[in-house]
Structure formats: C-alpha cells, structure tokens
Amino acid sequence: MSDLPLSGFSIGVTAARRAEEQIALLERRGAEVAWAPTLSIDPNRVDEQRLRESTESVLAEPVDMLLVTTGIGIKVWFDRAEEWGLIDRLIMHLEPAEILARGPKSVGALRRRGLRELWSPQSESFDDVLAHLRGRDLTGLRIIVQEHGQSLSMVAHALRRQGARVETVTIYRVEPAEDPEPIFGMIERLAAGHVDAVTFTSAPAAAAFMDAAISAGLRDEVVAAFQADAVASCVGPVTAAAFELWGIPTIFPERSRIAAMVRQLEVELPVRRAGLQLELAGGIQLLLHGDEVLVDGSPVKLSPAPAAVLQILVANPGNVVSRQALLAVLPSGTAGSEHAVEMAVARLRSALGTRAVQTVVKRGYRLAVDV
To answer: Is the same domain home to 138 and 228?
Structure first.
C-alpha cells in the first residue's frame, strides 16, 4: 500500500488555466486525477477593437474611482495599452483615481505598473469591495469597473443607484469548454459516488459545473454527492460563494493559492475516509462516518432536515453558515422559510446538546467546535 497521502482517492480538476500545475501536485501525492475543464479561458483572445474603444473612452474624461477585479484582467489591459502606445497616458490618467482592488493578484498587477490601491479587502471578495462603498454618496463620481470574464452589469446598476456614472471595461469573456464531454463524464461519475473530490479555481467554473449538472439532469444527484461524501474543494471564498445558492458545503484554504488548496485536500480526504471526529463545546465528542452520527460514542438518529443542516455545518466547523445556505440544503418538501431552518436547528440541538449549534445574530449559525 502506498504511503502517499492521496493514494486511492479520485479527484476531478475543472480548471482550464494552470491545470497542469494542479494535476502534477495532486498526482505527486498519489491521487488519481481526471481533468474536465468547465471553461475555455484564453485572456489573449480579446475583442481588440472593443477594448481599445473602451480604453479611449476611459481616457476621454477624468476617472474618480477604479474597481479592479482580477490581476490577469488588468495585466492584459495594460499590455494591450502598451502595444497601442497608450500605456503611459493610461497610467497617468488613472493615478489620481481612488483605486479599490479585489485581492493580492489585482494589487500586484497594479503595482507592477506603478499604481497603488487605496483599499483592498482581506477576504479577496468583490462583494466586500461593494460593501465598502455601500452607503457612500457617489453622486457624480465617474467609476470604471474592470470586468472579470463575466458581465458586471448588475454591479454597475447598483453603483448607479448610488448616484455614480459607471463604465465597464471588458478585457476578456469566459466561454464554455470546447469539448463538454469530459465534464459530463465527471458529473456522471460524481453522481454515482466514484469521485472523492472536485477542485474549482474560479466562481465561473463552479457556475458552469452546476449548469452542466442541470443540463445532464443530475443536479439533485450532484448536490447530494457533495452533501454526503464528495468534497467541493475551492481555491478561495469567492469561488466557494458560487456554491452557496445550491447548499453545497465547500472547503477552501486560508490563502487562496492552488498549492494551499492541494495541501488542504491532503489532510481533509484521509480524515473523511476514516470518519470525521470533532469536539464540540462542553467536551461533546461528535463522530460522523458516512450516514452514522455518534455523540459521545452513542448513535444518534437524525431526521432528514437536521441531518442536512449538520452536514453543511460540519463541512464548515466553527464558521458561520448563512440561513439561506441552510435553507437550500433542506430536503424537498420542507417549508421554504427561515422558520424551517430554525426548526431543523432546534431538532439538531436537541440531539447534540443545546450548546452545539450557536446562533450568530443577523448572519446564521455555526457549529461550536472546541478549539
């Protein structure tokens, strides 16, 4: 038997870019890897004419604020501007603006061109960039939003409601994979219980994966697989958020890096195979092995609703899970309201102990893990 930590595990990789690096990292740890890209992302294939027209439009008037969403997008934009002989003019034009960047890759791309961000969220979430602006009077401000492969028209609309004049700059578009057969094959294997984990490195990839599951008629089976034994492994919180709508529990590393994601799987998958054991507040020992739940060594029978809530809470131990995410995992036929979530949580507390699940006001619930 191999001593490699991921020996015997089947892992699907959905990345289109940098897939070779991720596959190599997983295979070196013994994993059996299937590559099934959900997207075709080639940032070098841009609409040159449209991007140049957008650039000229940006240069036509002073810019009050620049919202940067991706490092690769900014790099491609500035590289194209350099080819057109516009880079110095563009940099000088953007220097006086208030620049907000989504994460470290965006920050790095800006600084390589001599631009400095005024603010960037620790979460690397664009939602937090918008939250940073919420409540501000943006009346009359000209805001440029760099799109990240998908339309940000709703973001632009929200900022316009705050009084801003908003223009979007589209660098590249996310397109579906040229050959969809590998992703359909992976979805079928996942639904049949033959895949231990699937990795995702972007929110569009996660959304495309679920679109494919719907097209294959296997949406419910895929959601059930991820709620049971299979792991949806995401590179960071932005990617993970794309699964919240579906009630799919995810894991992601503290640092949004591919190597960190692989190292997390190296620890997580063997633990799950052996059975997940957690110590809850008050010293309660919780053990989950497949569908079996033991509290302090005694088996506990849970009805479907509290069992579904427990699955998503243990997938995010100690972290807050929103009521919306909990509602999404409740079995079909459960009343679709927050009251149904409250009832499921109450039954779960009755089974595990009243201190096992904590309410976080206005946010949701968390499993009270003793650390």
So the answer is: no
Q: Tell me the HSE value of 244 on the side-chain side, using a 13 A CA sphere.
A: 15
Same domain flag for 122 and 221 = no
pTM for this one?
Answer: 0.63
- Rounded CA separation 298/127 (Å): 43
Average pLDDT, the chain: 89
Counted domains in the chain: 3
Q: Which of 160, 249, 235, 166 is nearest to 204 (CA)?
A: 235
Q: What is the pLDDT of residue 365?
A: 93
Closest C-alpha among 115, 109, 120 to residue 71: 109
Cβ 169 vs Cβ 147: under 8 Å: yes
Which range has the worst mean pLDDT, 48-62, 72-86, 220-234?
220-234
Here the CATH number for the domain that contains residue 261 is 3.40.50.10090
**Residue-number span of the structural domain to which 243 is assigned:** 10-41+176-273
* Of residues 137, 147, 140, 135, the one with CA closest to residue 106: 147
> Does residue 292 sit in the same domain as residue 258?
no
Tens digits of residue pLDDT in 294-316: 888 788 888 888 988 998 888 78
